[in-house]
Hints:
By secondary structure, the chain is of the alpha/beta class. The chain has 2 domains: about 5-205, Aminopeptidase, CATH 3.40.630.10; about 210-290, N-terminal domain of TfIIb, CATH 2.20.25. The protein is about 25% helix and about 25% strand. It has 6 helices and 13 strands. It has helices spanning about 15-25, 45-50, 65-70, 75-90, 125-135, 175-195, and strands spanning about 5-10, 40-45, 100-105, 115-120, 140-145, 160-165, 205-215, 230, 240, 245-250, 255-260, 265, 280-290. The protein has a 10-stranded mixed sheet with strand order 2-1-3-6-4-5-7-13-12-9. Strands 8-10-11 form a 3-stranded antiparallel sheet, with no helix packed on it. Helix 5 (about 125-135) packs across helix 6 (about 175-195). The radius of gyration is 19 Å and the shape is globular.
Amino acid sequence: MIKKVAITGGTHGNELTGVYLVKKWQKSPTRIKRSSFETITQLMNQQAIKEVRRYIDHDLNRSFGLTDLADKTLNSHEAKLAKELDGLLGKKGSKRPNVDFIVDLHTTTANMGLSIVVSNKSIITWRAIAYLCKMEPELRVYRWQGDIENAFVDSIAPHGFAIEVGAVPQGVLRADLFLKTEMLIYHLLDYIEKENSGDKLELPTELEIYDHEVLVDYPRDANGDIMAMVHQKRQDRDFMLINQGDPLFFTLENKTITYEGEPRYTLFVNESAYYEKGFAMTLAIKKRVLIKD
Length: 293
Ligand SMILES: [Zn+2]
């Protein structure tokens, strides 16, 4: 039984869709009210939202590792904030968490369309995703297992995932993608209401997902500066196949660097926030996974 759901926005202060959806629901909470559970909203990094920056000191959405949360010596803006938010919405790993399900709202400058980023293995999380895929056939699912420990916001609750919608520039609201994100949340709340009521739900028994394999960095010089950009023929080709020999990067000398590897799907192609993280895109494998009852 899900008793409490948290919808979180502004984990990254320059991703306005989540910020303004939370503001919308704080103005009219009946939109997210359902009878069998409580829904709360939270603006996560308020200082970063004010400054329209991704973060103040470092990425909040990588700050929820158990070791970091327990480390009292960490006192950066986001380290302190993560502990505060974990107290409010966690605690992470607790048998009696304050919130059962977290959905964290993001946008990306990559052409990701309407997508879910999930690391959680819980059956409720995956049944929710199966329901959303049924309701929104354009929704795509990216399973991220690239870190040793999941340090995302949604990891502090037993169930949850992030929604990533793009392409949206940083600091910009786009009504079309705003409305699609909003609709996805209403479907999610409806799903939880049905699950709580014990209704027999007709869900897909298997789902097509994109499973994370590896991050691809830009070609860099000895000083770490990038020497090429994402190739014009790869730009915007998120969730699309890349084959051996396909154009990948385009250098400042007008040379094409081709992809050398097994056929894969490219995701988060040319995401602005990832230049500093050291990757130009991620490669994923398309799989079908079973959704158990
Ligand atoms: Zn984000």
